[in-house]
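Section handout 9: paired folding examples.
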Amino acid sequence: MTSPNQTNRPVLRVQINQIDYSLEVPGPFDNSNLPKVPVLRIYGPSSIRKKTCLHIHQVYPYFFVEYTGSLSARHVRRYVARLTHSLNHAIAISFKRTTQARPQYIRAIILVKGIHFYGFHSSYAPFLKVYVVDPGLVSRIVTLLQSGSVMSTRFCTYESHLSYTLQFLSDFGLYGCGWIELEKVFQRGADEDEEGPVFRRSSSFRQSRMPLEVDAQAYHILNRHALVARHHHHELRIPALPTPNEPLVLSVRELWDDERRRRAARGLPPSPELPVDLSSSSRGSGGEWVAEARWWEEIQKRIENERHQEPPAIDGKEGWEKWAMTTFQSVEALWEDSYKIWKPEGTSNTNDERQLSNADANELPDDSTDDVDIDMTILSSQEMTKNVQMEEEAWANMMDQEHNDAYDDEEYNDDDFLDENPVNLDEHKDQVNEDPFKGSPINTEPVFPNLTRMSSRSSSGSSTPPERLSPSPSHRKGISQTKNNIVTHSQAHNESASSSPIKRTFTYHSQHILKYTPNANGFEYARQPPSVSDLLASLYMHNIPSKIYRPPYYSKEIDAPDRPREYAGLVYHLKGGKGIKNLPAWEPIGSEIWNSLVEAGDAQGWEYAGHPPSVKSVRAWLKSDEGKMLTGGQTVQQRSQIEGPTQANVYNIKTTPVDTSSVSRERHDMTVFSLEVFAPSRAGKLPDSDEDALAAVFYSFRETEERAYKSGIFAVESPQFSAHQIRDFAIEKVDSELDLINAVIDIVLDLDPDIVVGWDVQLSSWGYFSKRAAIYGLEVSELISRATLSSRRSGSLQWEIRKTSTFKAAGRHVLNVWRIMRSEQNLNTYTFENVVFNVLRQRTPWYSSSTLTNWYRGGRPTQLGMLFRHFASRTSMVLDILKSVDIITKTAEFARVFGVDFFSVISRGSQFKVESFMFRIAKPESFVFISPSKADVGKQNAAECMPLIMEPQSAFYTSPVVVLDFQSLYPSIMIAYNYCYSTCLGRIIDFQGRNKFGVTDLERPPGLLEKLRDHVQVAANGIMYVKPEVRKGLLGRMLVELLETRVMVKQAMKGVKEDKALRRILDARQLGLKYIANVTYGYTSATFSGRMPAVEIADSIVQSGRETLEKAIMLIDSTPKWGAKVVYGDTDSVFIYLHGKTKEQAFRIGQDIADAITALNPPPIKLKFEKVYLPCVLMAKKRYVGYKYESIDETEPAFDAKGIETVRRDGVPAQQKMTETCLKILFRTQDLSKVKDYCCRSWSKLLGNRASVQDFIFAKEVRMGTYSDEIPPPPGAAVAARRTLLDPHHEPQYGERVPYVISRGPPDTRLVDRAMEPLDLLNNPHASLDAEYYISRVLIPPLERIFNLVGANVRQWYEEMPKLKPAGEQPVSPSKKKAGPEAVERFNIDEHFGSSLCLTCGSYAPEGICDVCRMDTRATMAGVLNRINVVEKRFMETRKVCASCAQIPGSEEIRCESLDCPWLFARRKSESKLNTLDTLKDLIHDLELDALEDEEAELNEVS
């Protein structure tokens, strides 16, 4: 055999769609005599267009422990033997197994060399690499080593927190959904007549159902040769060796290669053109930190102290380093010699040194009990057993913690840290040539050195206005300043004899006009009025606002309060009415100016007045909304829903189909199989898998996105159902439930999908199907698997129930679509019907289990058709949801970018993905990652630094507020200042006498600081880091690679706007790159669930960001020419108030500020202009709202809210609608009277029981089993508990959002007791919403938080409004004045009273019709008949809409009860009104009798 060559072409390529492992009896490919060995299994399509199962042999899980003993070969071998025997013995005892059978849990232990990643180290350190047989035992072995029970040593482990599959993918340059290239494979069970390439036969038996099953050994993987070792950090070099220009991560490099191929195919230059930051070469250093001078004094003292210390002796390290593999090279340590590429350095070596080269790594040392060194007391103690169990559970549940980290917006995954346009590669700046507010460039020298002590000296120069602010450049030299009056020298000299005050105050052009004076005999010259440009230019000099914005006011004088209102220490004077009387008092500035303009005796002239409006224009105005409002003639139809904002295309519907035919990259779609089941239930409850048998199973199969779905139905023949009854569906009937189960299993094996999905896999779909099969002794998970199920870790069942599903299938991904939608979509509820509407833009009905069961058992073909259509559409809709949200494509691209397998993208957290990226850069450089225990993580120092989050100056701002944002602040700081684990020199001042660094103590060799004194930079929190010329930090290099690649991908998206399929792929890639950059800081700061945290690095990043923001704020506030004031700052953004400026001026000033602050900071830190709010409301930290302009050319603003009720999901829809509508009225008109009218209308609907119940439904997450018994549970949990008592199978899943409403109840009733399900409220005619609770506790508080800032008292509006609560909507029939039997069923007292208003005119009428209307019988009858017609028409319209949605005949009863559809509530309302028609018909009958009596009376009078 020959060593593999990099130029070898692969004989087979397999895509890594799914990967797992199994423990197998070793065969000829394993080179081992152990009882069991791990074998990796990879499933996916292959280069020969066959689905393949690939078995990878000779890959073992491993971890490292540091070796501190003698480095002679004899001592190393003896130590390795003792450690191996002791570990095997300790593991057996921890399992309470006998040790006489010579257990073998350790594959091998070898000596390697590596570089500590945790802290700056510049030399190799010896490590022992421990290969483990069973990946599931790694956590147990690590716990034993950390406990001190093995060899009386508490070992510190390294890289044990990396999973087995991630180690394999990283070591061999592989990634999820990428391709593994194999030099040689051996085929299992090959047929002689099989078509296609013929591979060597394997002696192993087939274990999978895949068409092609092959074996390969680790050294047959050619991807490994794309990785090149980088020996950069094992010695101290200044400057350090240059890093390669190409991306270091292979998956990212492939993205660049893919783009080059695409550009070459289009005839473009291969290298993508990326934007360049032209200002990076002229940037400042950022200035000193607040305490930097003190830190440097301490560094100098430490250098002086270390000079007296002797350097540590070097014990022959150069000898052992030659004959030891690096951690990167040790991947091939267990391979056969003929396949090893690594050779010891040098030409000759002694036999003793050769033994260090690990040539005999495959030979396990002889088992001898004399070498066993374990502490039986510790091992046999109950505490040790408990610790092992707790650690294994912690490892099993680590995914749960990671999953929570991935969606913790507050800690990591916040877009505040990474903007849409990444760092260091920004678009060209907009150059504004004529900017009257932009002065000369800010001098960077005097600003930042003394910025921390900035006072009046920090202002940029004197108070003389800059040259560009002068009205005319030609007059600039002639301006002088005398007190407050500016005079040109020429005018002061020529007009000194004149006493006119105007000549001493303003500077005008020297042109004159003639002015007539009555008392004189002629004309005299008067000064020409100033031009518009002169006036605008002088506003800044006289501190006059460029624009006066109207403050909030009451347009109706009656609404204005009588006295001022005080709130939060401020007094508000709100004015009412319109006209000049509400203008502020005139404050003349320089009365002599006015007197000179209008002198006594001047002639007063006349001017032509405008024509009065024509009759036509008056009539048009009367028909307008304003005319109707002012004349009282407006008739607005009151809707039951709360009025809310109506936007164009509110659901962002896109109808253009996606063309996937032009996707250039090699495309292999994953096949998806969707399944839903139907089982008739008992007594109106949900189906019980232990009792209720399956009646039908529905499936849909998607092979590619271009092809139509393949759907089918299996149904059990029964007396109630026969397949020939339904003609619209192709139903395959079976005789029994067992036959149905077998038929489904057969179709799954026949179609062989890569992914099996269901809407709710846990409780229905596959979960219910699997439980029914288990009754017959069938294990569906094994029967539909592509291979035998791999061993699963114990303790992960609860995590699977809460986060994914317990149903598994080897070789196939199982996706619980409901869980996925919870993380993909921001919705109030995650019912199937609501997700379908928001994702697919269509309505689908929801039927109760009892309705579906009645349809099935009724046997009517029409109802059976409705039943089968309902479930058949669900299977296809689930596939449509996955396609619309692009789950498969996005997850596959994420897997490629992150370097993890497909399912880990969904199930694992952010730390796991960051580690994958870091590990791929660190491995070729022989860095070794520490794996701290939970106890070590808990012993870290507490974080000392916090981001700057200012308390905003809460107010309603009518002038522009500019928002500037530091682009990717935390990633930029890590790049600019070289913050990383591998560059950190530790603390300047020791903590309790130790150089405490994260989870360990950092040992810094004496004399190192003196060597690096000119190459050290100090962070803002007093931590030292080496500069990039010594070593570029791995985190910084990783972030640069991520952000540059993201810019490249976004640039590529601009060039393929017409190719929607390719844009989707590119968009998924850039989102994945953005995600990793966002969460990198969070990886260093994670505490409770941290896998390799370093709180000192996190503090360095946070404090540097805080001081960067503080410097920017001080500069903005201290620069007079901008006239700006910072009113809020949050982590990486500032809100700047520009009083009296126009929108155009705000854009220019904001860009000027951003450029000035960017120039003061080192690249790639950049302050970016983000948006202008005009107007806006700042309420509290992270809570603000306003009209947003992102471009100076925008004319229509966008409503932008953060942290308030319009974007929160813990309220009700009415709360969101009212808050947003009130804010829009305030922003557009500043008219508080309009806001008040809208609020009163909305409250009146609720008080009058005319509001839609849908607008008042709460939907909050419920986590059953986590609530205390000492206090009442939340209302949603109480509703769910009552529901569960009635039906145990109706318990909500963990994290499910349960809908409920608050109904009226007796006084002093607890809120939790008045919570009920919305359907129960609709079905109960005696129940109604608690209007007082909703108004006073839900609707008013968010409005108060906003309008208190303008001085309006919203609660007073409600208290003063007339509250006309109608006694009842049931009209009174004159012929039925006495209470009948139905009065007994009236539970509430107000139900015994009918309406006291006239049905036609609305006047007081105790008997339904007033006397006036009764006199005009014909007109009254016409009005009542019209009312009957309206009710019937509305009823028919709602039925027609619901029938078309449900696809049922109009004669069928509509049983849909979807709470997510507004037509349910409209239909129920029309049905309730329909019940009043009998009374109206009785009233018509009475009126007809009255009319007949009147006619008879008239006839009698005539006769």
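Moving on to protein 2 of 2.
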Amino acid sequence: MTEIDRGGWRRILTNLKEPAIGAVAEGVADVFDVGILDAYDLVEEAVADGDLVEEDTGGAFPAVRVAEGDDAGGSPDSGEKLSGEGGSSTGDPKGEAAETAVPDALDAFNDAITWFAQQLDTELPDECDYDTARDYYRDGRGWDDETIDEKLLGFAPANYRDELVTHLFNRGHGREEMLATGLFGERDDGNLYATWSGRYVLPYFDADGRPVFAISRATDPVHPADWKGNKYDKLQVSREEVAVEEPIYGLDTAREGEPVIITEGIADAITAHQNGIPALSPVTTTFKKSDREALLDVLESYNVPRVYIVQDAEAPSSAIDENDRLTLPQYGEGIRGAVSTGAFLTEEGVDARIAELPRPGLSKVDLDDYLIEWCGDLAPVLASAAPATEHPAYMDRESGRTSGQDRDTSTVSSSDDRSALFDLDITDVTGLSEGERGTNPLGHHGESEDYFVVISDELATDHKYGASYNALTYLLVEAGERRPDAPDGSLDDGEVFEAWRHAKEERYVGSEDPVPYRGLIGVAVADGLVDADDLVRRDSETGSVVGGGEDHDGATYRALPAGAYNQVLDHITEEYGLEPGREAVSGRGGDGSGGYDDDPRSVSATVDVRRAWGAAGRVEPSDLDGDRLQGTDQDGGSFACPECGSAVDVVRAVAVAEGIVEKCDAGLDHAYPEAYGLARTEYGAPLPEYLTTGDAIAEFDAVLDVIGEVGFFHLEEDALASETTGTGEEVSGEAVRTLNPAWRESESGESVLVYESGTVWDADTQRVVDALRFVALDSGLLTDPRQPLEGEDFTEAYRRARTEYGAPLPRWEPAADGARELTPQLPPSDELVDAREFDGVSPDELELAREEVEALIGEAATDTDEPTVVTALPATGKTTGTVKNARDRPLSYLAPRKELQAQALEKADRWGVDAEILPVLSEERVRPAVLDGAVSHVREAGKTRLRDRWSIVAAAFDGLEEEDAADVDMTDIFEETEEGADTVELNRATCPTAEGDHGAAWAIAVHVARRLGYTPEEIHNQAQGLFGAPLPCTHDEEEECEYSEGWNSVQDPDNAPDLLVGSYIHAHVASVRTHFSRAGDGTVDTAPRAVVLDEFPGEAFVSEFGENAEDFATWLAGCLRDHVDDRRDMLEADLSEDRWVRGWLDGDAAEADDDIDDAITALGRTEELLDARENAVEILVEVDREALEDLGLLEPLEAVTDRDTDAEDAYGRLLSALGAVDAEQPGSALAGWVDGAVREPLEVATAAGTGTPEIGDVELGDLPVASDLRALVEDAVDAARERRDGARAVLDAAVTALRGGAEGCRRLAAWADDGYAHPDAHHILGNIVEPQPTRINTSGWAFDPDATDGTVVDVADTGDRAVTVLDRNSHGARLHTPPARTDAGGEDVPLVGLDATGRAPLWSVALGEEVVTDDIHDTPRERARFLENALDLRVLQAADQPRAYSGDPSSKDTDGDVALLEAIAEEYAGIDAPRRRGEEAVEVGRPAAITTKSVREVLEDDARLDDVVAEWDHYGNVTGSNDLGAHRLAAVLGSQHYGDDAIERFCALAGEEVDTERNGAWGSELDYGSDLANTYLKHMREDQTTQAILRFARGDSGATVVARTSALRDDLPVVGRGQVVETWSDTAAKVAREYRRLGGEFTIADVADAVDVSRRQVRRVLAELSDAGYIRRVDGGDGLANVYEPADEPGAGEVDLPDRDDAVDADPGRSPLNQYYTWNVRVFGGEPAPDTARDGPPVRQRGAPPSPTAVEGAPGD
């Protein structure tokens, strides 16, 4: 070790000014490359030798200065820079790589992985162990073909670059996307190279099962083409162009509510998956820090109850240390990594356990080997798993030390923190503030009154005495241990105890504060418990006892002798009446010294800050991953400062490299934890994760979970029936003890082995035997380790282990029948009644509100500017107001359900409003299998099949499965409908043909046409084109078509209804938006009819298409362009640049092409001529010939009908005759009919008499049409030329089709023959030809039902407010077509929405335009007041999280729901309250309950609730229903979440992408990164929950609703709080009841005095409640700690502890041990409680220790 001369000390001190001892030691360690502990020894030696002097600075610990006479001046030589001199770091090891913007990188990666999987049978070189990659996976790894296919395991062949590039290019991926996959790199010349060659490829999958990353493995031996060569190689995500990121492996295997294992290697995880075991893997020994939060997210999202960490079982690696000593750590890297991960998870409240694989001899065994060897049976290993923080590799913690014989200490409790004694300030102990002056609180002396001054938080001075005090010296004076005029000097061990004792008695520190270890030594020696000569010295790093005469290199400290520690703790309790604040130690030794026997770099985590510092000082450059940090030239064991090259430790090197500090000699006080953490997590330094003791303690102390923490050495040896037959060196291998088992005859007497960790191994059965099973065997409960330990045997084994074998287990006495004790609490009913008015519904307030709502709707029904959503509350008469407004202005009321429509009709009858229900095509539903078969047949055989109706029926029935065909015959095509009491009959007009009145063949043809996308109107009006004949119902001589008659009634100008009632789909019909009336001159006038939509329509105006979507577009493209025969032709045709195609899609075909314009003109004039002739024939038939002759019109009309008469001539003759008619002549009105019906179309046909239309003017060869469009035009020309019947209809179809646009597409589809002709095809094709669609990536929603990783869609506007969403993976499309807002005359129509929880952004998307909301209440507070005051509604919130109850009900807390419902019924049922204000009070009955459908099914079958719940309902049947309005007591359990896919699907309609990654945010913190998505989330959760609650506020009676969800809108009258908390023993119930009784502030002692449990148990329960937010620690003043008070309102949320269903037999889903309590409940008096949020404490860098220089006196606890 380098000799430190006095000059060096002077330079250090000069540079560091007036440092604390820790700062000096750190400087020494940095400059001379010694460990921090060795540096402390050197500083202490310098103090002891008089070279340095301790000097009191007023702080808790002294500083040091150079002794007088020494030269303290000077500065370092240029060649002797202090640690880290130099400039600032400009390096950026991680870089500032810009995020890639390549949207299709994952698609390209997906395709590449699929390609690799197709290369499995590529032959490997002869020298390789296996012939193909498939052989390696199957024979070498033992994975079956199903696993190989499922995991997409693949192979990267040699020299495959060109082949894969071509494959990806053909799949539509460009160069940028390929580079973004990370599978390619770019050379300097711009050429691509393949990342892997000749390697096995193993992909990672995200939670949805989509490949997102990969790792490759070398063949054995390495493939000649493998230029990497290393065994495993991951994609280099650090490259700027790479877009993929490495996730946690195995995410796709996690299952809701099931445990998972974490294993070391990817092969281990795959084998686990093959055996049906959910497994995650970091693909190394432990998770990177950056992945840990993601790991927590996964565990939380799947409600994982327990995590088992199963690492490789391997021998620890040996090494030669710096002193040429052979070191052999007890545990290998795998176990240390497992403990690191487990400790982190435990900190975060996860039940994490270490499961060790058996390792015969010293061979390595990984999980892969074990599962193959043991046929996938992992149960024995998991049964022996121990909690991570109790594993022997997880070292006991120490907090604080001093370096030197007089100041060394060690805090040994595994569950305590450093004593608060050393955190006290002078202000804490004096009660005075900084700057305050006065007399000395320790005793006034002299005449002056202001001689005692508090100079700072740390120091006070008595100017008369000339003495200064810090907190510790002040305490010693106050305790009588020092004089007030001479308080200075360091504390000896005895004084440390006296200072702590006095602070404890005076409550400067909390009652549970731990006694400092030096204090233990002090009281032990002072009170004669230990002779000072018996104190031992231990190595500061290893903890081993150092002999007195031994020449020891490292630092040491004094410690109590073995066995004294627990005795001293008992002595403090008995002699001084103080709680020592430390746990007694168990097991061998019992000295409490906390000695260590390993290198601190070998432990995964520590609570001893010295261990962390020591590890940092011992890390060498060779320990790190890569070469990012360099060693010094002189000594490879030290790090070179990246700036100046000086020797520094790893923490300083990282601090400079990362730019945390500019120079290595800069102070690291606050930056040390960050640099330490980066060194550990990013640079791979073998540093332990530093945890405070508070971090290390599990968040909740679940008593039964400690079973797995108990090992063999926790058992009392005297109680064992098994005989110890060997110990220590007598035992070979790693075992430390052998036993002759009591439960069988053992020939060797040594068949049971005990290991250092306390694990017991039974060699005969080859099983690990956990402590509880060992007790059962040893005491005779079991006779074989393989027997199950369950039921009463389990309970008895637990009792014996605790009471007879001394196992440190908590008291547990489960009920004999396994039933749980439930002690739920809610705000007392009398408190609720006293605080809130229970006087019933107010009819007067309600009536006034209804009048205001009616006026509001009337105003909105006249506003044509933009739609208005009326958000008035339930019971305020929104529907009634709509109906009553129809008396003054015509309205259409459209609602999604029959019962709502029936209610509107009933209200119309009550208020004298003329209302009519709108027609529907059919009330019958064709059997799905029949209709699917018929549609499929038409698609494949062509739409002409609709003209051969019986062939459709035959094909449909031929395709039925046998079991389906047996149930129906060809005349029975409709589903049977069961009519119940709740069936609503509306007596709507329907089409007789669709109803089957004209036979099954006609009926199925009509329903097929409807499925093909044709509207009922098109089915009736375009029947000639669709079916080749009119519908029979339109030509039935006996009766008219009811459907058509119904619409005729709507349009009747002489008797138009006031109110039309229908469903959302009717909004598309123009006559629903139009009021028809008869003008005075007999003509028909049209005017806007306001449309009212009841409830949020959501996606009611969306149509979805499956995989045929692009086939529809291909059909249409083939009609507009020659040689488009399939999808590829369509995509390659570049239709977006075709002016004719774009013009046709926009409805402007005539402007886009002159030939089309000419054809439209010719065909149109011909059509008009035929129209004139048909009308002339009709007049000649209908009117008396003499009357026509008298008017001079007979001959001209006959000329029009004569096809041999030139049309131009006929027009002239008719025009002349009409002009000669005398208006006064009898029958002259007939001239008006002739003028409109004949003259007008004839004028168009002849171009006002300038020529006769010639069908030959249509040049078919010049038209840019093809396929069905060409056929239609040809048919029209032929029909006109041949003058055949029906020619006019064909001409009209051809003209409309040629014009294009939406109507052109619909008409073309109706007359087309292709089975894939679709009336909405123009929307899909419009999306495809859109040059710049909005591209959106999804993760949860996809058209493909088998997709697991979302999809990519293009979103485009394809018409008037129409939006088309097209899947780029060709699995479907969605078409959003909100209804037009114009009437039949083109006038704007008012649109009104009725939605109590309406949100404008969502309505705007649904309607395709901006909307406004309006209400009679201006603020949420006004709405809440109305609900409580007028509707007598009050809500109690009984949860702090939304509690999404969608999905599997077994993962929900249904036991908590049962407890809450029982409490509600017990507490509130029976209250007397009036239903309406002024009426007599009547008793409130049992509660009704609403929850999700799946949870309802579980709870409704729960016998415990048979006499508790009066009525059940579920969310899916909530909105708009009044069925539960009579119940005055209710519960709403959980909230809804439709799933991320629903949010993505809705937001895609607006062209918005949704971020579903969550990034650690769940529950109430969930954020989708989009305002629209977050609004939809509120719609799902808050709005639907509110709608459920409002079902009980329908105006007939009030209600009290308890909501077990936080998903509540701020306009609800939340008048109180309750909570459901899960705990583990009746102790918690006792403690909770007592602290609530105490109220105000209380201490642990206050509660402990009133309950029959120990203070330790009380402390644990209160800590649990504090973490949950029901109580909080408060500053008691004057240093008082551990004072609690009830929180103003619940804070952190509910406590869900792990299930231990396997502990005792119980029904599935019902843990017999959990108990539920509702604590900290209150009622708000008048208004909701104020926000009580407080600023949290400063954020600490978790996992890293504080800087030694930042902790003044850190080593001296």
